[in-house]
Amino acid sequence: MDDMQKYISRDTISLSEAMRDIDNNANGILFLTGQNGEMTCCITDGDIRRFLLSGGKMDEPATNAANHHPKTANSIEEAQKLYHEKNWIVIPVLDNHGIITDLYTGPKDFKKRRGAINVPVVINAGGRGTRLDPYTRVIPKPLIPVGELPIIELIMKEYQSYSCNDFHIIVNYKKELIKAYFAENEEPYNITWYNEKKPLGTGGGLSLLKGVFSDTFFFANCDALLTANYERMIEFHKEHHNTITMICAYKNMTLPYGIVDMGKNGTIENMKEKPLMSFLTNTGIYIVEPEVVDDIPEDTPMGFPDIVDIERKKGKNVAVFPVGESDWMDMGQLSELEKMRIKLFGE
Description:
By secondary structure, this protein is of the alpha/beta class. It has 10 helices and 18 strands. Strands 10-9-6-11-16-13-17 form a 7-stranded mixed beta sheet, with helices on both faces. A 3-stranded mixed beta sheet has the order 1-2-3. The protein has a two-stranded antiparallel ribbon with strand order 4-5.
């Protein structure tokens, strides 16, 4: 395959470095090699997530979370057979010394089937989109195009790929333009509209949906597109009996400075040159139980993170489902719009 080196790193790297490399190849997997180039293990974004959820840390060695007995092949023909039998992500082809000579990622037109989760989706589309000013003075943020479609429709299509077809959209600012777009849309969407009489923030608008749901639903802002596995998110939420699951993305950032830890009397305790920093960021996408809606006061502006904190302090199960940086696209800032378009549709 082309660009094979994007899938290979040394087995001495940290977990945060492995996540960065996985994000760069956008295929969810990385093969780790020893000093002589022999493959020693592989690590996937799922391996990283499970390791972190069990209490692991991003600065630990990637090998701590890796699979040390991955499936391999001795020829492309064997790799093709293994791939189609088990639906693996990538099958490495090794020579007699354990060196990777090729990687098989499946046929070019092959698409993995997505499970039908049939979960209703609430989209908060009522904000003014001040970060995208001056565009949002003319057009509401949900209708700003990314390629040929507005961001809100791209978000809805991603949910539809998991058979989530029941949409509930909270609107306020330039709401008639948003409704008019969907009224004239050639593709019929099953949408229920909820009109805010005043701005209610990123969470307060949910109070308009009291009594609507009897089971789990997604709640999402209209400026973020997530391409992670929604089926896995729902499984995690249900398995841990969460009241709210917050979808968070690991952001990797290389600081352009040397970092110094100072001790008593100015002594230097540690130095790191341009360290890679990893931290969790809130994507603005949540999985929510209907009881949360009952706890939201009516006609009261409120951010959804405040609602998360209320449920957490009440002792409810509130948890994070981590995803990779490449799984999250945020168009809330002008500088990110073109990046999102290129990622979705290419140059």
